Amino acid sequence: MEEESSRLTKVVAVGVVAAALGIAGIAVTGCGSDDENNPANDALENVQSQVDSVQSAVSSAATSVQEQAESVQSEAQDQAESVQSQIQTETQSNGGSSPRY
């Protein structure tokens, strides 16, 4: 579970960086010339496109990690409830004394 949390933290950090790069790219593009044949504009558009792709990938990864974390948590809860039920059943079948393992 701790590993999942660490992975989610890293994914979110990458997302923040990607978002910052995206904002910087938009700001720089807004300051440039409107010349469509300008290589600098082409380069910035390319970078912006890559940033958009990274943001999409980070969002998808964050969703996946969140779903995995929820699944692990649910499985752990189910197992804990199963063990508690087994202990209760064993205790009742032993006339109230603790089970011997």
What's the helix and strand layout?
Blueprint: H1 2-31, H2 39-93
Description:
- This protein has helices spanning 2-31, 39-93.
- The chain has 101 residues and is mostly helical.
- It has one domain (2-27, 40-90).
- Helix 1 packs antiparallel against helix 2.
- The longest helix has 55 residues, at 39-93.
- It is rod-shaped, with a radius of gyration of 26 Å.
- The two termini are 28 Å apart.
- The model has no long low-confidence stretch (mean pLDDT 79).
How much of the sequence lies in strands comes to under 5%
Radius of gyration computed on alpha carbons = 26 Å
Largest sheet: none
Percent helix, as a range, is over 70%
The H-and-E topology, N to C, reads as HH
Question: How many DSSP E strands?
Answer: 0
Mean pLDDT: 79
As residue ranges, the low-confidence spans are none
- Return the structural class: mainly alpha
| Count of the domains | 1
Termini separation comes to 28 Å
Count of helical segments? Answer: 2
Overall outline: rod-shaped
What's the short version?
84% of the residues lie in helices and 0% in strands. The protein has helices at residues 2-31, 39-93.
Keywords:
101 residues; mainly alpha; 2 helices; 84% helix; 0% strand; rod-shaped
